[in-house]
Amino acid sequence: MNLKKTILLSLKWILICALIGFFSGSASAFFLIALEWVSQLRIQNSWFIWLLPIGGLLIGLLYHYHGKDVVKGNNLLLEEYETPTKVIPLKMAPFVLIGTLITHLFGGSAGREGTAVQMGGAIADQFSRIFLLDATDRKTLIILGISAGFASVFGTPLAGAIFALEVVYFCKISVKSSILSFVVAYFANYTVELWAVHHTHYSIPIIPEMNPENLLWIIPSSILFGFAAMLFSRSTHFWGALFSKNIAYPPLRPFVCGIILALAFYTFNVSQFMGLGVPSIVEAFSKPNEYQDFLLKILFTGFTLGAGFKGGEVTPLFFVGATLGSALSIFIPLPIALLAGMGFVAVFSGATHTPIACTIMGIELFGIEATVFIGISCFIAYLASGSVGIYHAQTVKGVKIRLYERFKRRKLDDL
């Protein structure tokens, strides 16, 4: 390839990154503004919780009659990356946006990353038609969409770029995809800033020195973070399978779930587990949580998403990790903010099999001073969380899967 063709090809991909970054970033900016608005509306009108079954029914009907080809959500993106067949329908973006806003408006326990990633992936894949790209280049577009969506919704461009690469299996990513993933992440992140949308900030004011004693406390706490990630992943899959088995008509699943959730939230006064739960996450960095808080968030989120409500899993994972770390501060002699921050990213690492991206996210959110604590915690939680994550279609390979295959073979040999 001569120099002129190389320059033209590079300019084409930079243009694609700029377009994906702008449109995905703008979609995320609108989503974040709308999400804040519906969340405040729900807080001001507590009776909205009784409309959760109706909201669930509307989401179920929308996807059952008009969105069967996009109902898989993030798993569809991963499947198309693994085996490209057809362009992801653009309607995935408005469908998941509407579904997520309805979920949060009426009090469902869900996140926001899945929405941004699906919007980014759907928007990005449309450029395969415009620029007449082949299957290999479509894989790159899907990575760019995931990167743009994740980076823009959390304000972490480095983590967004690496997450997109790592979640689809880092070892098989091309150099081109790696470079472009970073480019589009920054385009998307700066687009959100251009729209004057702000992200939640967290801090870890005290970072102790790394010594053998502190390392000995990091290891068991990180294993617990890994177990929490495993429980979260299996909970979501369990409830999804249970609803599918017992309720044949899909729109009724979120309707029934909505009735049960509304009664539970009202009867037990546990409104802190509605929606994103960001205030509880922020509070966890300064005030010890009750030990059951992380378990209840796992229960409510798994139940909500398993039934068919829309949203993401990542912010609930932040909630689970931060509140678990906060509760552990009662027993573990490490600063509460550090334990909450470690749990924040470590549980996410275990549930998505992305320890590198989560380490980078920890650095972006909490500062480089906490790198060693964050990195060790993310990798231990990743290893301790098992081979099942929150994404059905994610291909887990490398050292971790070999470790668990060896463990399973040993169990079979013992029988």
TrEMBL record:
Subcellular location(s) of the protein: Membrane
Molecular functions per Gene Ontology: chloride transmembrane transporter activity
Name of protein: Chloride channel protein
Bilayer topology annotation: Multi-pass membrane protein
Ranges that cross the membrane: 12-35, 47-66, 87-106, 141-165, 177-195, 215-233, 254-274, 294-310, 317-350, 370-393
GO CC aspect terms: membrane
Organism for this UniProt entry: Flavobacterium commune
InterPro entries for this protein: Cl-channel_core, ClC, ClC-type_chloride_channel
Keyword terms: Membrane, Transmembrane, Transmembrane helix
Pfam hit, one: Voltage_CLC
Lineage summary: Bacteria, Pseudomonadati, Bacteroidota, Flavobacteriia, Flavobacteriales
